[in-house]
């Protein structure tokens, strides 16, 4: 575990080889989130609907 002190507005550098998935929001739309999208795409339409409601995530 890493113990780092990061404040809002700080710039940090991350080695890209340490990133396995990522997600950010653009106007409430989840960008990235590739692992979640793969799992969601394996769900039935009803399961997807329930997941979307429970998670509050919107996908492009």
Automatic annotation (TrEMBL):
Residues 4-59 form the DUF2314 domain. It holds the Pfam family DUF2314. It comes from the Bacteria. InterPro entries: DUF2314 (IPR018756). This is DUF2314 domain-containing protein. It comes from Cellulophaga fucicola. The lineage of its organism: Bacteria, Pseudomonadati, Bacteroidota, Flavobacteriia, Flavobacteriales.
């Amino acid at each position: 575990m890493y113990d780092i002190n990061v404040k809002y507005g700080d710039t940090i550098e991350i080695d890209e080889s340490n990133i396995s998935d990522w997600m950010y929001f653009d106007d409430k739309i989840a960008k990235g989130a590739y692992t979640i999208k793969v799992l969601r795409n394996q769900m039935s339409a009803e399961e997807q609907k329930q997941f979307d409601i429970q998670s509050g995530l919107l996908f492009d």
